[in-house]
């Protein structure tokens, strides 16, 4: 009985802004004011402009690259955290989670100090005689991806660690006893059984990456355009709320569709294993 009002409050708190934004996306903007006449003008404008479609594609690609990189880096870390009995395990865990203890702006400025043309990385390369000119490590997709992976890697590691801890190590030993190489045992035993953790971590990282705003602004320097930047510009610079709302809902709906397809594919893979 006590949970009813609380659940209702949460539903209203989270759904009311989305419903309002959806309604605004079907209106038109006229000299800084919203004309409450239903129209598909904003969505037609978005899907008929190659610039916005290109930004949407770049946003999804950036999210996919960030997710793949976080998975490749996070899986070995999660495996080590799940299996090690070393006394240094808490230190490693704190090291992995440390990005969450620092504000995102501070983290971005740290990467700017490292990756800038006169940053620490390029200074070492140039002073050491390995490069005559600085490498372009910032204000491109590489710099944005590096920072995004650093920011969201803990979510991948935590999702994988919980699943890998529950795996029976005797299954891997049995596979190797039957003649499987360590690599084949990993591919046919460990990897399939860890799919729920891969799914959870990938969904978290992908969702956070495609909605990131601060990292692309600071590390991309407006040279890496993503849809959250367009939404911010339309909402707070141009004050075209209907078009900004339409951009936001296009990103929301498309990400939900992609996540649903990913979940379905993973569930099929899990059923095949069972």
List the keywords.
globular; 2% strand; two-stranded antiparallel ribbon; mainly alpha; 274 residues; MetI-like fold; 75% helix
Summarize the structure.
It contains 13 helices and two strands, in the order H-E-E-H-H-H-H-H-H-H-H-H-H-H-H. Strands 1-2 form a two-stranded antiparallel ribbon.
Can you put this structure into words, describing what you see?
It is globular and about 70 Å long. It is an all-alpha fold and 274 residues long. The two termini are 39 Å apart. α2 packs across α13, α3 runs antiparallel to α10 and α8 (169-177) packs antiparallel against α9 (182-193). The protein has helices spanning 3-25, 41-47, 50-83, 89-97, 104-115, 120-127, 141-165, 169-177, 182-193, 195-210, 214-220, 227-237, 241-273; strands at residues 28-30, 33-35. Strands 1-2 form a two-stranded antiparallel ribbon. The chain is built from 13 helices and 2 strands, in the order αββαααααααααααα. The protein has a single domain (39-273), classed as Orthogonal Bundle (MetI-like fold). β1 and β2 form a beta hairpin.
């Amino acid at each position: 009985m006590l949970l009813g009002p609380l659940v209702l409050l949460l539903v209203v708190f989270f759904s009311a802004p989305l419903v309002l934004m959806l309604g605004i996306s079907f209106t038109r903007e006229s000299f800084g004011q919203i004309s409450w006449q239903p129209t598909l003008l904003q969505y037609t404008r978005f899907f008929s402009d190659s610039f916005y479609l290109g930004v949407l594609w770049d946003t999804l690609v950036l999210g996919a690259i960030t997710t793949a990189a976080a998975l490749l880096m996070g899986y070995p870390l999660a495996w080590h955290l799940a299996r090690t009995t070393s006394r240094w395990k808490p230190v490693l865990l704190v090291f992995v989670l440390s990005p969450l203890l620092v504000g995102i702006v501070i983290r971005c400025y740290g990467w700017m100090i490292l990756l800038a043309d006169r940053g620490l990385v390029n200074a070492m390369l140039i002073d050491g005689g390995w490069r005559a000119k600085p490498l372009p490590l910032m204000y491109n997709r590489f710099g944005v991806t590096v920072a995004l992976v650093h920011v969201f890697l803990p979510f991948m590691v935590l999702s994988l660690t919980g699943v890998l801890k529950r795996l029976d190590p005797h299954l891997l030993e049995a596979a190797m006893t039957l003649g499987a190489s360590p690599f084949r045992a990993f591919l046919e035993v460990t990897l399939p059984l860890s799919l729920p953790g891969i799914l959870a971590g990938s969904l978290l990282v992908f969702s956070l990456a495609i909605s990131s705003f601060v990292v692309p602004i600071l590390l991309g320097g407006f040279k890496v355009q993503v849809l959250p930047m367009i939404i911010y510009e339309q909402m707070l610079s141009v004050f075209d709320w209907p078009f900004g709302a339409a951009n936001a809902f296009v990103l929301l709906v498309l990400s939900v569709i992609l996540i649903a397809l990913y979940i379905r594919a993973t569930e099929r893979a899990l059923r095949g294993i069972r």
